[in-house]
Amino acid sequence: MKPHQHLTIVLLISSLAGLSHAYALGPEASRPSAKELAPVQVGVKSPPLWLFSKGDKKLIVLGTQLPLPDSGILVKEAIRDHIRRSDVVMTGPGLRAGDGVGLVRGLTMISSMQRAQKNTSGRRLADVLPHQSYERWLALKATYIGRDDGVERKRPMYAAYSLYTAALKRNGMTDIPSTGAVIAKETRDAGLQRLDARYRLPTDGLRKAVKQFDVPLDSDVACMEKTLDSLEANLLFSPAAAEAWSVGDMQRYRDVERRYVPIDSCWARLTNEAMARSSGVADPYGMVESTWLETLHRAFETNNTVFSTLPARDLVDATGLARKLQEDGYSLTALFDNPS
């Protein structure tokens, strides 16, 4: 199957970080081809860990990264030790549909969502994209997707996702979050409770919401154009960021991250917002953050040490939930220099 045939509606946690829609190269940034980048290997050191502390309460946070090598990730002993030393493990922020059903599964179970991925009235990308954008799309499609007429019938934002995943696959990378599943296994092995800190999207009218699914065409087209703008810079620099992340080399991570802005996962954001609006939720990402913080506060009522995850870029830049924790009086200490 071609990459676009695996398209599902996804929530990418990186979309919580409020990333810029453009990318910029640093003044000394070079432009090697993607093939010239060193292969991404999971190193002998640990991905980065941070400690948020407030009185006798400790929150150990693994900074997560996307995209990552499609060969998977390894949980280092330092991470395993911190999980085992914790009183409880909490999921990272996210959305879920119903009682424990992830939003991905909740939506893909609805056949009408497949129809919603296509342009209305039988239109094709050539009919909805500006001429210059369509020419750019064709050039990148030829490189990463090849001859495939089916993707031409998709909404621009979902065609953009097909392009992104195909380009990642060509470079041995994936945007599928795997950290949560790995940590869940370690939590089970340690015999610890795992708290679901994701926001539960009301599902009583989920099927109706899918039928009413609507994304304005200008937002749909803008998503494609942002992806076309950002794709090549991401292919150049995200493998190096993933490699630095995997060994906790945060100086190199910062240096690489300054050279590009991770691709705006607009297909996920627009889908989540449209579904939430149809379900009567005006600010889904605000609810994601508040739900995670509320779950943390409840966890600290009966526990002293909690393990969870947040995007590494938020932790490095003090944005998103990392910033809110510090505003709430938590002190932040990096553990990646001394994981023990």
What is this structure's SSE topology?
Elements (H helix, E strand, L loop, with lengths): L48 E6 L2 E8 L3 E2 L7 H9 L2 E3 L4 E3 L3 E2 H6 L3 H5 L8 H4 L2 H14 L11 H15 L2 E2 L4 H12 L3 E2 L3 E3 L4 H6 L5 H30 L3 H8 L8 H13 L5 H19 L2 E7 H6 L2 H8 L3 E4 L6
Parallel strand pairs: 2-10, 4-8, 4-10, 5-9
Antiparallel strand pairs: 1-2, 1-11, 3-7, 5-6
Description of the molecule:
This protein is an alpha/beta fold. Helices cover 46% and strands 12% of the residues. The protein has 14 helices and 11 strands. It has helices at residues 77-85, 103-108, 112-116, 125-128, 131-144, 156-170, 179-190, 206-211, 217-246, 250-257, 266-278, 284-302, 312-317, 320-327; strands spanning 49-54, 57-64, 68-69, 88-90, 95-97, 101-102, 173-174, 194-195, 199-201, 305-311, 331-334. It has a 6-stranded mixed sheet, sandwiched between helices. Strands 6-5-9 form a 3-stranded mixed sheet. Helix 9 (217-246) runs antiparallel to helix 10 (250-257). The longest helix has 30 residues, at 217-246. The termini are far apart. Residues 1-44 and 99-106 have low confidence and may be disordered.
